[in-house]
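FAQ: What does a multi-protein file look like?

Like this. Sequence, then tokens, then the next protein.
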Amino acid sequence: MSAFLDTFFPHVSGVSYEELNGTRPCAEFGGEWHFICVSGGRGSMELDGVAYPLSAGHVVQMPAGRKSAMRSAAGGRLRYYDIRYRYVHVEWSGEQASLREPEHAPPPLGLFVQVPSPFGVLDQVRKMHRLWTEAGGAPVPGKTGKLNLTFLQLIHWLAEQQQLADTELTTKRSILECARYIERHYQEALERDALAKQFSISSSYFSVLFKKYLGCSPVQYITKVRMEKAMALLKESTKPVSVVALEVGYNDPLYFTRVFTRQVGVTPKQFREA
């Protein structure tokens, strides 16, 4: 993505605000891209026979040369801004610049983007609409440069937001995978720092992330899983408490009894007899 953005040079050819009530088939877009930012309402965009839901915060990048149709939800209006643009790649070699026409592929943001906080993108899009309206709906020296710069900054901001979201998703997946690992290996010795290292997470940040995604610390989660297994064994078998302790990861039956009593409120023996 960074390599693409380093050479991405857009030229905005129009900015409009639209309100759709019903269905609007879109003709083939020719050589222009459309950056559509939904500001309100609900609807859908159909692209190559596949319908995608639209609501405030959605950004759609319609490629050149594709057909689509936009629809508002029944009984409502879909409100959006449409930025039309073309772009080239500008590559520098020393003091020499060369232009390269874009390939037939979408910019790295993808065709459909859900912005976590739509206010940032909407502020920039509205600024572009004001610039375009003040220019009378036509390219004007000075205004055109501001439009292109604002749009370039907007694309970079969206790329950063998407990268942050991807990192967040990857981190969450790692924590959830760690939780599944604990559920499968609760009988083994499980140390917080070793788990953090195994799942490539900073040990100092590991507990913070666990708390964020699972609502408890790693040690608390390990204890929770072990106690659930212990309660099942105590109810479903006649194994001695010392054996149950070993099977859920505690080498010391007395320590297991103290932990069980603190977590459950009664001793293992009392729990079994209840």
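And here is the next protein:
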Amino acid sequence: TLGEGNTPLLELDWSGKPILVKLEYLAPTGSFKDRGSAVLVTALRGLGIERVVEESLGNAGASLAAYTGRAGIGCEVCVPHDAAAPKLAQMAAYCAEVIEIRGKREYAALAAWAAAAHGAYYASHVYSPFFLAGIETLALELWEQLGRRAPGALLVPVGSGTLLLGTYNGFVRLHQSGLVDSVPRVIAVQAASCAPLHEAFIGDHDAAAEVALEPTMATGIAVRRPVRASQILAAVRQSGGTILSVTETQIEAARNQMAREGFHIEETSAAAVAALDVLEASDLGNGPLVVVLTGHGLKTRLSE
């Protein structure tokens, strides 16, 4: 552990809407990924793994690098050439081997798979059940902070979907245990520049088709074809939620307004906040609306 969890849950008024913001960007490495990494790396150390490899746009790689460093496990991170410089510097600071891959972002995943074929353990935050189990703690923690109840709705940015699925699974467990009356509505948000899940949702599809990747400042959710798309779509529908998309202008405006409120968040987090302006009353359940602020603004703004 590096002390992950127990992040603040604060009240905020957003254009007249009372909301709660969960400050996951105050985790040890600056993103919610630390919850998953803590469980994943603990499991890997127990299995005697000596070296791991992962592909990442930034936050997952930085988190894995920190926790493997703590555990004495070697770490390689394959990153696309357009990853944010502060995130690359953070990985290197934890003594990970950062391997920059030119070309399409998907090539970083191919490079990681190749490294895994030659002996390194593939410690993917997207595929690992250990990682998802760690993210479930976010639901349990919200339940505690809300006085042993679930929020009415949960608003999260979504790319690969680990935050959404882990938190949803946690609330399902609480519901199955009789500790909450219902699972909160899950409201997922994508950047309009790369929104395969949004398109699949509004088209009433059970899977997401690969989409073109247009430039977006919300790089953390710029995933052209999420491998867990069918699970994400099912979770959102089963919760009675929805999947929205927001423009670059809306993301930037939300990021700047949050900064004026004292919250320095990265653009991926701001995408979720931006969705507050397009939410319908019917999207909200009974109880408070919680917005998860996933990553720290210092991870991206320094590279501008």
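Q: Is there any per-entry metadata?
A: Some entries carry free-text notes. For the entry above: The chain has a mean pLDDT of 92.
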